[in-house]
């Protein structure tokens, strides 16, 4: 097991190094002075210029510059934002919690609704029920996320006026940031309006979370249905049925835990599309996360923000993908058998 974890760690480091190499090459193509694109310092003094040259080894060869670039970026020095002249690392830390909050809520919606529907689609004896569920998932998978977001905003935000369509919380509420997760911060606040603020955050979160949850929801339903149909035909399920166990008990205790293993594997495959969809959703609903921050940096040609945003999102996807792969291997008896056999 230790050898397997070491291989996964080496894979993460190699992939991260490749990503940094691509960013380093892309930085040299920016239509500005190289030192300016790396540091973000608009009008450096002689001392600052000398420090930038020393930090990034600009007077050395390409290899030395790349090593210095990797050291600076992995050391937390992402430079200054060209527009705000604030450290990119600080700005990134301020917008990451909002993206995590949106992604977690959307993921929970997809799992809580998708798994039961997948089980129902696999076990229902009514063809109409099965066809309706699969038609819903196919429709949800085919709808462009930007069109769905705009449609939900138009109906539930503009015409019906039920839900807010932009932002994270009403500006009338003054909530002191503690964890960065607005749902938690409202509950931790000592304001007398904290429950009203909590409700307001929930209302702001509904439309973007539902929009973002559509893609993983459709995938979870289809994978759960396929996995459940496969598991229910296994020998140990037939044996449990022969012993007279109730169907509901067989599904909950025996079939569903085994059917969730393929679902876990496919979660890792969805991370890339999920992150790209999250960026679009944040832009549509003006959600103050990494996606809208990164797109704003692209519009403003803020090259240090572009580098920092792409690096953070890429490393996060790589890390979570490898983490899900490790969890899948640990939870899957067949994978553990192959793992120990290889060792």
From TrEMBL:
InterPro entries (UniProt xref): MetI-like (IPR000515), MetI-like_sf (IPR035906)
One of the Pfam families matching this protein, by short name: BPD_transp_1
Record's keyword annotation contains ATP-binding: no
Transmembrane segments: 12-32, 102-121, 133-156, 201-223, 274-299, 305-327
GO CC annotations on file: plasma membrane
Main location: membrane
Membrane topology: Multi-pass membrane protein
UniProtKB keywords: Cell membrane, Membrane, Transmembrane, Transmembrane helix, Transport
Single annotated GO MF: dipeptide transmembrane transporter activity
Record's subcellular location: Cell membrane
Signal peptide residue numbers: none
Domain (ABC transmembrane type-1): residue spans on this chain: 96-328
Family per record: Belongs to the binding-protein-dependent transport system permease family. OppBC subfamily.
PANTHER family reported for this sequence: DIPEPTIDE TRANSPORT SYSTEM PERMEASE PROTEIN DPPB-RELATED (PTHR43163:SF6)
The protein's name: ABC transporter permease
Organism: Shewanella salipaludis
């Amino acid at each position: 097991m230790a050898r397997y974890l070491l291989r996964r760690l080496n894979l993460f480091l190699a992939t991260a190094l490749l990503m940094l190499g691509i960013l380093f090459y892309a930085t040299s193509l920016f239509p500005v002075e190289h030192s300016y694109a790396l540091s973000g310092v608009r009008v450096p003094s002689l001392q600052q210029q000398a420090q930038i040259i020393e930090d990034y080894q600009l007077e050395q060869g390409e290899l030395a510059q790349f090593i210095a670039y990797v050291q600076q970026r992995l050391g937390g020095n992402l430079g200054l934002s060209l527009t705000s002249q604030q450290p990119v690392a600080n700005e990134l830390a301020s917008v990451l919690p909002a993206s995590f909050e949106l992604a977690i809520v959307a993921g929970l919606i997809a799992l809580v609704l998708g798994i039961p529907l997948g089980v129902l689609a696999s076990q229902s004896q009514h063809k109409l029920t099965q066809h309706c569920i699969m038609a819903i998932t196919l429709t949800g998978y085919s709808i462009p996320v930007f069109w769905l977001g705009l449609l939900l905003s138009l109906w539930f935000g503009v015409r019906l006026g039920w839900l807010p369509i932009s932002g994270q919380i009403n500006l009338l509420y003054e909530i002191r940031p503690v964890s960065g997760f607005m749902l938690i911060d409202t509950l931790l606040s000592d304001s007398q309006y904290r429950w009203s603020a909590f409700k307001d955050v929930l209302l702001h979160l509904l439309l973007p979370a539902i929009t973002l949850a559509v893609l993983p929801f459709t995938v979870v339903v289809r994978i759960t249905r396929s996995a459940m149909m496969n598991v229910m035909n296994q020998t140990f399920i037939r044996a449990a049925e022969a012993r007279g166990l109730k169907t509901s008990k067989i599904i909950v205790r025996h079939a569903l835990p085994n059917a969730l293993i393929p679902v876990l594997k496919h979660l890792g495959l969805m991370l890339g599309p999920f992150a790209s969809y999250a960026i679009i959703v944040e832009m549509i609903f003006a959600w103050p996360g990494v996606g809208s921050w990164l797109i704003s940096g692209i519009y403003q040609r803020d090259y240090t923000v572009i580098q920092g945003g792409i690096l953070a999102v890429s490393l996060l996807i790589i890390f979570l993908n490898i983490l899900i792969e490790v969890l899948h291997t640990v939870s899957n008896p067949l994978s553990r058998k192959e793992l120990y056999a290889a060792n």
